[in-house]
Design goal:
The protein is an alpha+beta fold. Helices cover 43% and strands 23% of the residues.
Length: 229
């Protein structure tokens, strides 16, 4: 591996961590010595990377450091293509179009040989088999981003409907169904709402009282889901 590739790998590894990570952990992930790691961190800091920390305390990459356009490996290209194709088939119309547009933008900046690899990818996504949505998922995503309450009617598995006011903070895309994760004012607890059982959706201008990342963390804790590093 060249030194430039190693430096890029170090940046990408640091980006995965939201909390300070030890030099020993970074060195082990990258397969380099701790001395080489310290030298590479010093080099990146000199180039403008906002890496904070020091030996014994751990390191964290602060937002704001932009890398020039990077070369993608074959595995990375296949991951991009597969992910974009899945979203294009499984998501709602707006996200499907956005996935296709994003892949076009990536292709536009790739060298010719890598662009050919992208176009010729043989990783395919199976037929779309998701239950039909009764509401506009774009409204759900907008409310999540803006941290706004939603009002909706929700039918349970027996068909009984109740009117809910919810604080939406996540949207799960599964093979056959989409699920809104929200705090429900009626139940005073976290609830999961299938989008094919929703109706009479109404966006509001009311901001819910807790921040989205806080709700997401509390929900993960309640479900026993590990927090991202």
């Amino acid at each position: 591996m060249s030194r430039s590739e190693r430096l890029l790998d170090l940046i990408q590894t640091l980006r995965r961590y939201r909390q300070p990570v030890s030099g020993q952990t970074l060195a082990a992930e990258l397969g380099i010595s701790i001395r080489t790691l310290y030298r590479d961190i010093t080099t990146l800091q000199a180039q403008g990377a906002h890496i904070e920390g020091e030996p014994g305390l751990g390191y964290i990459l602060r937002p704001g450091f932009m890398l020039p356009p990077l070369m993608f490996s074959e595995d990375e290209i296949e991951a991009l293509v597969l992910g974009s194709r899945w979203v294009a088939k499984q998501a709602d119309a707006r996200l499907s179009a956005a996935a296709s547009d994003a892949l076009v933008k990536v292709a536009a900046v790739l060298p010719a040989d890598l662009r050919e690899s992208l176009d010729a990818s043989t990783l395919l996504v199976g037929p779309h088999a998701t239950a039909a949505d009764n509401v506009d998922l774009g409204v759900l995503r907008k409310a999540i981003r803006a941290e706004r309450k939603l009002e909706l009617t929700y039918r349970d598995s027996g068909g009984a409907g109740t009117r809910r006011t919810v604080w939406p903070f996540a949207l799960g895309y599964f093979d056959r169904v989409r699920v809104l994760v929200a705090w429900c004012e009626l139940r005073q607890d976290f609830r999961h709402f299938r989008t094919d059982r929703m109706s009479d959706l109404a966006a509001t201008d009311m901001r819910y009282p807790r921040r989205r990342p806080v709700l997401l963390k509390e929900w993960r804790d309640s479900q026993g889901i590990p927090q991202p590093q």
